[in-house]
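Fold it.
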Amino acid sequence: MPTRQDMIQQVNFNKVAFLISAFALKQLPDTGYPEIAFAGRSNVGKSSLINRLVGRTSLVKTSSKPGKTQSLNYFTIDDQLYLVDLPGYGFAKVSKQVQNQWLALINGYLENREPLKVVVVIIDIRHELKQLDRDLVDWLRYHDIACQLVYTKADKLPKNRQIKNAAALDAGLSITANDRIVFSAKTGQGLDALKQELTERAKIG
């Protein structure tokens, strides 16, 4: 009998609805949909990326205040899969206690969530590789969790600078250009490539 993953066809990312904000692992939904999680440092543009992906302007609230996302926020996509918005890491303006609570929630989810197919790690292409980003990618690799790198805010740089900065990030993360997507929430650069990649990832059983 075909699995749900086998049956996934081209996904309509614009068919989206908010499902739940989970503040504890016991609140996570249990319907068997494949899940795609989104991770990034606070204020890296994660909310803007997700909004562009699903064709909305404010489905995921954007904020200049670090720590806006404090739960695992679930969205259903085309009745085929879930997008999961994780709290940002590098919470410079929240207490250590809150940091530890979020870390326990995120780690528990990432390590134990069977429907999780890939973690989209979002990195600002304008800057050199941050230790927090390298640590997350290394942690995911150590735990054998699939990872898709996305270098965002590409519209902030001219093309030649995009190429140079992306190559530097590739070297720092020990990947090739085929392992990441250069993206802009403003212009839509990389949008089709990201949709196709996530559709393929969701099929992996």
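Confidence is low (pLDDT under 50) at residues 63-67.
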